[in-house]
Prior knowledge:
Blueprint: H1 3-20, H2 24-40, H3 44-60, H4 64-81, H5 84-97, H6 102-118, H7 122-139, H8 142-158, H9 162-179
Helix pairs in contact: 1-2, 2-3, 2-4, 3-4, 4-5, 4-6, 5-6, 6-7, 6-8, 7-8, 8-9
Amino acid sequence: MSQTTLALSSYELGYESAVAGDDKTLMAALLRGSAVAKRNLGRIDDAIADDEHSVALFRELHDQRETAAALANLAVNYLRTGNLRRATQILEDARQMVLEWPDVLDPIVSNLGRAAAQQGNFLAARDYLEQSVASAERRKATGTMLVALANLGVVYRGMNQLEKAEATFSRALTLARQTH
């Protein structure tokens, strides 16, 4: 049994207990975790359903920060399916909710950059990703910065700015070596 399958089993058991205890906050969080596991197992439709349920529960709880994080999780599923328009719409909605929470905002902005790049809009992608890198750097959020740098390197390559791409990939590699 893979670790992802084991994690999914744990999320599902926890969810049953949360439902029995009518703990909507825990239900929503476990659904979000379950969605990630299902996405990693290739069960995108099931992941989307869990993420949509998680978003609905966080909205019912009036938790804007967690709603935005759940929306970001949902958007990644749409990025994986190639539904870039839907992913971008969801990410824009999430971004408006968390302007004052950079730890949630930065990955959303990074994913907006990823979506723009996949649509061939390299200028917008570069702007989003540079914003995400700068904010993550200020916050010393290494994981977010690594993802944004890797995506930014791809964007520079797509823009045929090969020296910038190489420098950006090198920066990401150096950072990864320092932290892992």
